[in-house]
Amino acid sequence: SSHLHQAIAKLVKADPEEGTTWLMAGFLRRAAARPLLAAPLRRGGCAVSQGPIRPIKDNFPLKSEKEMGPHGFFKGSYTIYSLKNPIVGPLFRPPWVVGGIYNPTIDPEKHFNTQDRFQTVSFAEYAKCYFYNLLPARAICLMAIIPISCVLMIVTMEMRREPMEIWMDREEYYKDFNSYYYGVYFDHHHFSHQLCHRRAHKWGYAGQDIMFEGDHGHH
What we know:
Layout: H1 2-14, H2 16-38, H3 65-68, H4 95-98, H5 108-111, H6 117-120, H7 123-134, H8 137-158, H9 170-173, H10 177-186, H11 188-203
Helix pairs in contact: 1-2, 10-11
């Protein structure tokens, strides 16, 4: 290329117009041809891989144990089985200590080259990578499951074991019309507790439920 540059320089001096044309052609060659030649090729001397390109390694998406510590359940750097010696592995070290982007663990030219992905990546590996994407959802699921479970446990513990009373005798209803008709609008909690007491007497377990005795009972 040095000889070509010298020839172009002499041509520019001899014939500026034609020399400029050659010079612009050289710029175009550098701007267009070289990036295309430098792009990852499927085969050949400049190819990122000889043969089909595998975009991930066997341990993907896990990283270096030197940086993150051992992988797996109860295989981390800490243990709950000992309070005297809870540290059983290397501690977490930030990227500026062990590398990170300055010392990558993947080859981006292979990783983002997916032309042979269906030939080099199995369905199990696809499923594994998809599962790892769902791991952050664990906290979100627990945020919903834990409070719902607590409410359901309390409801189950305090649930009445007799059928609900969906109608009552006319004479009994009109003995306290205002409470039965307006009570649910005035204080629905108080109204519900009143009906619990009524069913307790109806089904014969009045005085046997701790939730109706002492400070729990308000009637």
